């Protein structure tokens, strides 16, 4: 067994990693991706007789905070390759580094591995999507949305009550990622969150947007309930373990 560490993987290593990912996807596709263009990423690779068995990538979030995703060849699980990577990383990194391990919430092998390694559950991020073509528009005369720079501000009866942003989600400019939606604290618990969200969907639909993606914590039950009632569906759920 041999473990190597690289920051810029060669094309050969990328092909080896993709081979493991493709084998996994044939069994079950997971919403976890390696960004080979990320210069702040470190790859740890576990080999056995020159065959890549397991790979773990650390993505730098801050100077002492990393997020990790890992794949092990599905034909060689439970043989200690991933555990060897963790042991190597534990020796390689400073003791004050914080690592969050990402896995699909309902994928048993990943969840079982996290438990066996005594990793502590932190939270789950849920990705939801809504096809705006199917959304039935309504009129909301008391809500107005105005843009300033890249931020959209929400007004209710002339009072500014919140804001939101959105960016392109894919190469399709009308497929968007919705984020930073907030209702200011003094206007919460008055039904304005759901009312504003309805107005936002109408606003985005009028702009010609076709699909809206968003993320929220699974534990944020009130927000999840609103989005579900508006027709959003879950695409994937990523759990974080530390």
Please give the structural blueprint:
Elements: E1 2-6, H1 11-27, E2 41-48, E3 51-62, E4 65-72, H2 81-92, E5 98-104, H3 108-116, E6 121-131, E7 143-148, E8 151-156, E9 159-168, E10 175-183, H4 192-206, E11 211-217, H5 221-229, E12 233-241
Characterise this structure.
This protein has 242 residues and is α+β, with helices and mostly antiparallel strands. Helices cover 26% and strands 40% of the residues. It contains five helices and twelve strands. It has a twelve-stranded mixed β-sheet with strand order 1-2-3-4-5-12-6-11-10-9-8-7. The chain starts with a strand and ends with a strand.
What labels describe this entry?
single chain; 242 residues; alpha+beta; twelve-stranded mixed beta sheet; 5 helices; 26% helix
Strand order of the biggest β-sheet: 1-2-3-4-5-12-6-11-10-9-8-7
Name the beta content range: 35-45%
Low-confidence stretches: none
Number of helices: 5
Structural class: alpha+beta
Outline the biggest β-sheet. 12 strands, mixed
Quick structural summary:
The protein has helices spanning 11-27, 81-92, 108-116, 192-206, 221-229; strands spanning 2-6, 41-48, 51-62, 65-72, 98-104, 121-131, 143-148, 151-156, 159-168, 175-183, 211-217, 233-241. With 242 residues, it is α+β, with helices and mostly antiparallel strands.
